[in-house]
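Students often ask what a holo structure prediction actually looks like on paper. The answer is less mysterious than it sounds. You provide the chain, you provide the ligand, and the output is a string of discrete structure tokens encoding the 3D arrangement of the protein together with nicotinamide-adenine-dinucleotide.
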Amino acid sequence: MNATYDDWLQAAASLTPHGEHHIGGADEAGSGARFTVTAPRDGTVLAEVADAGQVEVDLAVSAARRAFDSGPWPRMSPAERGQALLRLADLIEENRSELALTISLEMGKPISDAYNIELRAAVATFRWYGSLADKLADESPHASPDVLALVTREPSGVVGAVVPWNFPLTMAAWKIAPALVSGCTAVLKPSEESPLSALALGRLATAAGLPPGVLNVVCGDGPGTGRALGLHPDVDVLAFTGSTAVGRHFLRYAADSNLKRVWLELGGKSPNIILPDTPDLDQAAQTAAWGIFFNQGEMCTAPSRLLVHSSIADSVIATVVERARALTVGDPLDPATEMGALVSEGHRERVLGYVETGTAEGARLLTGGTRMDGRGYYLAPTVFDRVDPASRLAREEIFGPVLSVISFDDLDEAVELANATEYGLAAGLWTADLSTAHRVSRRLRAGTVWVNCYEEGDLTVPFGGMKQSGHGRDKSAHAIDKYTDLKTTWIQL
Ligand code: NAD
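The corresponding structure tokens follow.
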């Protein structure tokens, strides 16, 4: 990425985002109802976007249904479907700058991260599943000499994908790519905070040659558009990423409608344990700070509980606080910015509410906890120590740049503290001892455990949660399980 701050400012001034739904391979204005999307960097209006009610959701689901029941997509060879996803990946890459800019504008992420991390992940996801298409195989178990038994994977049908705003394109890609490559068709509902990049994705899918109705995008809020999709009797699978509270709604929608399969990727309150034998304490502390402030702390996997052995706590905390104070917080469009704006004023107020709660609960505020200057929704990187493990600060997902430090004295206590949460999405562990790394990572109830690193990974490994962080896995070949049904065919010879 070579563009300068001025280049991005100019590009932003001339960006004209499309605000129509994408249904059946074409833009669709719908009823004319609109909602406003604003830029967290300065609160200005970015676009008026079409708001989908029941009628538009019905249209989108019907388009996906037709494309599944009678369109070419599920009947194409897997290799042909794979080729289409590879073309989509190429188009995303060709439009990388504009998509990164759109994301940075709509949800406040630094342009450098949008370009280098989010767009790279979205392209990689479509490429990985596009390449996987013709490498999947069915089974033929050795049932009996007189029988040919086949276990085949059948595409599950119409997939509703409801995603959050923190990684708008990556979260969409993690659902859409494995669903489409399996032969399903889809209706994507992005967050009302970040619909513009998803609408652009819908148009690019059509430009890449995906048949009409294979990928539809409808916009609107949760209680309106999201609920209509969740309750829709013609949606076979609902893949959701978002908060645990909203995940519960989707289970209810399924129970109240057609018992559609619901896959949930939910919230987290991840522990990051630093043991005294950590090989490089400075790196551990720097990574702890990077982890909680990356993407403004708006990360499901954010290492928001730093569990540090009391013998090293002072030096680790000093490094984390120093890093927090040195962070470049500001306009997301400046390539030098390390932390941008929170997604909305409402969300900033919610995060500040936790700062008040934490202080009232007796935690010690070491740095941050205040709004920052500027018209946008900026908040200073915040660190608390002496956090009571039973307090709300230690238990609830804040989804902002707020770190809670808790000290411990022995390993069993650390594991107990780490697991003392309703969530189970991710965990970090820092140690030089291989046996400790194995033993402790097995005892941690989390879908991902990072040892001597944080937020690392690629498409080859599954991602998802235990406990109330959800179930089902995104990424890797395991994601195919969510969008296919096993069929047994028993042929008597
Ligand atoms: P959210 O749950 O408020 O919204 C997520 C999506 O659900 C949005 O599209 C929203 O419009 C929709 N929605 C909201 N209320 C709804 C309702 N009543 N019925 C139907 N749909 C509804 O979450 P958010 O604020 O967009 O994102 C933050 C949350 O997402 C955090 O909890 C974070 O941990 C989680 N998240 C999880 C993962 C993961 O992979 N586990 C990844 C990213 C974010």
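The radius of gyration is 23 Å.
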